[in-house]
Amino acid sequence: MVRDAGRLIRHVHSWMSRPLPPPPAALRRGPLRRGAFDTRARSPRLTSLLGAALGVAFLICFVTGLLSHLIQHPPAWFGWPSRPVGLYRVTQGVHVATGLASVPLLGAKLWSVYPRLFSWPPVRDPAHAIERASIAALVAAALFQLISGILNIARWYEPMPFFFTAGHYWSAWLAIGALLAHIGVQLPIIRTALTRPSPEHAPAGALTRRGLLGAVGVAAGLITVATAGQTVAPLAPVSVLAPRRPRTGPQQLPVNKTAGGAGVRDAIFDPAYRLALTGPGRTESLSLADLAALPQHTVVLPISCVEGWSATATWTGVRLRDLIARAGLDPEGAEAYVESLEARGRYRATTVPPPHARDPYTLLALRLGGQPLHPDHGYPARLIAPNRPGVLQTKWVGRITVRRAS
Ligand SMILES: Nc1nc2c(c(=O)[nH]1)N[C@H]1C(S)=C(S)[C@@H](COP(=O)(O)O)O[C@H]1N2
Ligand SMILES: [Mo]
C-alpha cells in the first residue's frame, strides 16, 4: 500500500518535471531576448522583503474584511458584541488603510519580478507551468481586490458590472488561497533571501535597493496619511485623497445616500407618518409626537461606513430596548427587524441582534447634534447602534418588528 503510494508520487513527480520541447529560438526577441532587463536593483532579497510586507498587509486586510462580512451576514455560529462602541470603526479603518498601503507595495513587487514574465523558455516542464498559472491567479486576484476596493471607496460603480460586495468577497478567498500556496512554494527561496546578509551594492547612479525600499515605504505612508483622515478626524486637513471628511455634510456629518436618492421625500414629510411597532400579537402606531413624548436619551456614537469613512456624532432619541418592552417582549432575549420607508434598496432593512437590541446605547434616533435629523440623515427617525457597520444603521425608519431571538 505505502510502497504503491510512494511509487505513484515518484511517478507523478517525474512526469511533472519531464522537460517540455523548447520553443523555436526565433521567438527569442524583444523582452524575451537574453539580458533584456537591467537586474541590478532587482534581487530575490528585494522581492522577498516586499513580499513579506505585502503578505502582512494582505493578511490583516483579509482578516478585517472577513470580519466585516461576518458582521453584515452573520451565520448562526457568529456573534458580534455591541461594545466597545468603536471597535468596528477601528477594524474597518484598518481594512481600508492596509488595502490602500498595499498599492505601492504591490506595484514595487510586480516591478521587481515582471522580467520573469519573459523568462526563457516560457515553460520548462508541467510543474513549472502550474507554478506560473498559480502566480497569474494570485496577481489577478490581488489586482482585482485593490482596484475594486478603491472603486468602492471612491463610490465609482460603473466600471464594475457585478455586485461589489460579492465580487470582492469571493475574490478575497481566491487571493488568500493563492497567496498561501505561493508562500508555501517560495518558502525555501524566501528563507535564503532573507537570512543571507545584503550582498553587493548597486553601482553609483543606479537605483539602490535600499533607496527603492525607502521610496516604497514613503509612498505607502503618504497614501495612508492622505486617506486616513476620512476616519481619523485630526488628519482630515491633510487627507487630500480621502473621498469623505468626517465633518463635511449636513449637520457636520457625511451622507451615504440622500433622501432624494432613496425616493423617500414624500413619505418622510407626510403628516400622516406613523411608526409601526409590532410585537407578538400586537401592533401600535406611534406618531412623531408620541415618540417625542417617550423618555429621550442622548449618546455619542460613530457612523462607521464599510467604505472606510467614519464620524462621531451626538444622537438623541428613544432606546430600542424601551420600544421592545413596549411591544411586549423582554429586551434581554429579543431582536428587532427594522425597516425603512425606502421602498427598494439593499440597505432598506436590517435585523438588530440581541447584544445590540438590549444595549442602552442603541436608539431610534430623532435628533442629531440637538436638532431634528436632516432628511439625508434619516428624518424622521433612524437607527443608531454601537459597534455596527454604517450600512446597518437604517435611515427613515417606518416599521420595527420585535421578536424573540432564535
Ligand atoms: N434606508 C437606508 N438606510 C441607510 C442606507 C441606505 O442606503 N438606506 N445607507 C447606510 C449606509 S451604507 C451608511 S454608511 C449610513 C450613513 O448614514 P448617514 O448618511 O446619515 O451618514 O446610513 C445607512 N443607512
Ligand atoms: Mo456605508
From TrEMBL:
Membrane-spanning residues where? 49-72, 92-114, 135-157, 169-190, 211-229
Q: What InterPro entries does this protein's entry cite? A: Mopterin_OxRdtase_euk, OxRdtase_Mopterin-bd_dom, OxRdtase_Mopterin-bd_sf
Superkingdom as given in the UniProt entry = Bacteria
- Please give the CDD domains that the UniProt record associates with this protein: SO_family_Moco
Tell whether 4Fe-4S is among the UniProt keywords. no
The record's keywords, sorted A to Z, are: Membrane, Transmembrane, Transmembrane helix
Q: Does the keyword Transmembrane apply?
A: yes
Q: Give residue ranges for domain Oxidoreductase molybdopterin-binding.
A: 272-404
Query: Any idea what this protein is called?
Result: Molybdopterin-dependent oxidoreductase
- Species per Swiss-Prot/TrEMBL record: Paractinoplanes aksuensis
